[in-house]
């Protein structure tokens, strides 16, 4: 007899829908993109395979094995999530997104530098995946996860970004921070201020990149405000 299929608790399903729609609402994805949350050492939940902003109230995601073939109907690039979860047990959520300013900067083979508060959360560096092709095979997904390493973020040249984090709330918020850092980078470049603009030191980043004061929870509340399944004031 086959082992029963693992199901995800409704609270996790709901939070994943909130995350997906928040990414869509704030222009961090469009028709393409996906996010996931780890369930246990061997499984994660990925959002429904359709435009994230259009995922409906109560619409379930799909449980995927960390090791093994993708279930039918799951998007091919979800292999990226698998490979990250395999390598990094501390990662609890992954977001694959298409932020506009990140996309623009990536076409020049550039990534944001930590120049302001939101950029400080990427003091470990943001790596560039220098290939514009979709990740549709295991070998490419493995190589991308290896290049991401222990970092939070990877920019894919002309093809968006990947963020890995310790929670789904962190993954969504860090994606917004990444896009704002890219916006800042582009504005500095367009103003001709690259030499004058200060890049934060490691010590400055370490001090500024705090999670105290409900930093992540407040941004989560902002990003999910107005969602039909949101609970105001509750980052859950």
Report on this model:
This protein has 236 residues and is an alpha+beta fold. It is globular and about 55 Å long. The protein has a single domain (10-224), classed as 3-Layer(aba) Sandwich (L-fuculose-1-phosphate Aldolase), CATH 3.40.225. A 7-stranded mixed beta sheet has the order 3-2-1-4-7-6-5, sandwiched between helices. 40% of the residues are buried. The chain is built from 7 helices and 7 strands, in the order H-E-E-E-H-E-H-E-H-E-E-H-H-H. Helix 2 (78-87) crosses helix 4 and helix 5 packs across helix 7 (215-224). Helix 4 links the parallel strand 5 and strand 6. The longest helix has 23 residues, at 168-190.
> What can be said about the biggest beta sheet?
7 strands, mixed
- Under CATH, the topology can be stated as L-fuculose-1-phosphate Aldolase
Structural class: alpha+beta
Q: What is the CATH homologous superfamily assignment?
A: Class II aldolase/adducin N-terminal domain
For the largest sheet, list the strands in their spatial order. 3-2-1-4-7-6-5
How would you spell out the order of helices and strands? Answer: HEEEHEHEHEEHHH
Q: Roughly how much helix do the residues carry, as a percent range?
A: 25-40%
Query: Could you list the spans in which at least 5 consecutive residues all have pLDDT below 50?
Result: none
How far apart lie the N and C ends?
36 Å
Strand proportion, as a percent range, falls in: 5-15%
User: How many domain regions?
Assistant: 1
Mean pLDDT: 95
Q: Tell me the CATH architecture.
A: 3-Layer(aba) Sandwich
- Shape descriptor reads globular
Gyration radius, to the nearest Å?
17 Å
Total helix count? Answer: 7
Count of β-strands: 7
């Amino acid at each position: 007899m086959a082992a029963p299929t693992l199901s995800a608790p409704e609270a996790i399903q709901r939070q994943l829908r909130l995350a997906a729609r928040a990414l869509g609402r704030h222009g961090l994805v469009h028709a393409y993109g996906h996010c996931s949350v780890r369930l246990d050492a061997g499984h994660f939940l990925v959002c429904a395979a359709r435009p994230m902003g259009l995922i409906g109230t109560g619409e379930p995601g799909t449980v995927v094995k960390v090791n093994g073939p993708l279930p039918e109907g799951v998007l091919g690039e979800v292999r990226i999530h698998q490979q990250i979860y395999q390598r990094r047990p501390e990662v609890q959520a992954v977001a694959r997104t298409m932020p506009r300013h990140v996309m623009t900067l990536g076409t020049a083979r550039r990534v944001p530098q930590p120049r302001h508060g939101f950029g400080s959360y990427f003091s470990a560096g943001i790596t560039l995946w220098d290939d514009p092709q979709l990740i549709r095979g295991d070998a490419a997904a493995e190589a991308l996860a290896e290049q991401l390493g222990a970092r939070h973020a990877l920019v894919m040249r002309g093809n968006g970004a990947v963020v890995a984090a310790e929670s789904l709330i962190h993954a969504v918020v860090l994606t917004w921070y990444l896009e704002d850092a890219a916006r800042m980078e582009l504005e500095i470049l367009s103003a001709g201020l690259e030499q004058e603009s200060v890049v934060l030191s490691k010590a400055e980043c370490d001090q500024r990149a705090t999670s105290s004061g409900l930093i992540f929870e407040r941004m989560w509340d902002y990003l999910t405000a107005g969602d039909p399944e949101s609970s105001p004031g509750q980052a859950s």
